[in-house]
Amino acid sequence: MTDTVRMTDVLAAGRAELMTALAEADEHAALDQVLGLLDAGVPAEGVLLEVVAAAQAEIGRLWQADRWGVAQEHAATAVVEHVIAALGARVTTATTRGHVVVACLEGERHAVPPRIVAEVLRGRGWQVTFLGAGVPIAHLVPYLREKVPDAVALSCTLARDLPRADQAVAACRDTGTPVLVGGRGFGEDGRWARALGVDTWAPDAAAAADLLDRPGWRRAARPAPPRPVAPAYTALLTRRAELVDAAVAALDERFPPARDDERQPDEVREEVGELVDFLGASVYVDDPELFGGFVSWTAAAPAARRLPPAGTRVVIEVLARALRADPPGVLRHLDCGRQVLATR
Ligand code: B12
């Protein structure tokens, strides 16, 4: 048996054991198991990516498939955060490289993915400051001006936040700081990073570290010429509240809430708002597949949604009617959502 095969087996067994501990939210078992892998000589980066990150992604699949409830997912994610911190504390690589600031965009609560990036970069010898979830641009910019890091790494998990990511990248570049981006929000192949004119995207933490090993990434500091924002996006943004009201009213009419209905009006409103925001992001990057992909996800994750596919259909029709006379461009995005629902 080769060393590579042996390591693959060790990592697979580690993942399975970690999942067992996470299913029980057993913090001690999870810590023992993961730190045990380090003691057995598995490199910290392998543990972080092949064991911890993979387990976290599996948590997502279980949640989406309604095999784990929200509380179980939250409990397991909390343990994962502790595990990552413990792994980070055990890595004692000397700082031989520059300083990288890692941050989530404003409104972004998915702090685990960039935390993994932060720990991998630290393990590769970078000095890393992790700013965590939800960092407003207005606070990030003065921080960068004060600390003058070598790079800032911005994480975006939800594609609906791409317009905000665009603003954040531009604001960071204005400070002269090179920007790296990553996270599922930029699309699996980073296509929406490219749509925003950012070529320093990496698919995962190891690739992010590799990117910083290559010469040339510092060009990501150059302020890009401002890109025109589609009038259809501006119109959508301006009319957001009115569009959400109209869609919620149509839903109430079409599906009058029963007396024992567990749906919370605020949750339905929030999900309608989400659809409008994903539509906005889709228009912003000019790729209807973004909206189509989100609609597809909503239909595939009924357990995570208050709004069933029939409700999403109603929202799409209300938006299509309301936006008919607006600057063109939105309807083909809504069409993509319609087509996705038609195939279900
Ligand atoms: C845990 C979790 C949460 C937790 C986050 C807790 C925390 N402290 O992080 C909580 C409960 C807060 C949450 C909330 C929500 N979530 Co959530 N969440 C997840 C879950 C299960 C895991 C995320 C994670 O940590 N993944 C593991 C990491 C390792 O994976 P990763 O993203 O691939 O990360 C790698 C790369 O992306 C890259 N990378 C990441 N950042 C960066 C940055 C840079 C600079 C670089 C170079 C690289 C890079 O490197 C990472 C490591 O290799 C995912 C499911 C999943 N499979 O990921 C859903 C998921 C992301 N969530 C989802 C949703 C919808 C939501 C909510 C909108 C739900 C709701 N209605 O409330 C909210 C939104 C909250 C918000 N405003 O941000 C959906 C997104 C669907 C979509 N199409 O957009 C997902 C995919 C779930 C699913 N399968 O349906 N969530």
From TrEMBL:
Domain of life here? Bacteria
Which InterPro entries does the annotation name?
Answer: Cbl-bd_cap, Cobalamin-bd, Cobalamin-bd_sf, Met_Synthase/Corrinoid, Meth_synthase_dom
Pfam families, A to Z: B12-binding, B12-binding_2
Tell me where in this chain the B12-binding domain is found.
Answer: 97-222
| Keyword entries, A-Z | Cobalt, Metal-binding
The record ties this protein, via Gene3D superfamilies, to: Cobalamin-binding domain, Methionine synthase domain
What name does the UniProt record give this protein? B12-binding domain-containing protein
Gene source species: Saccharothrix xinjiangensis
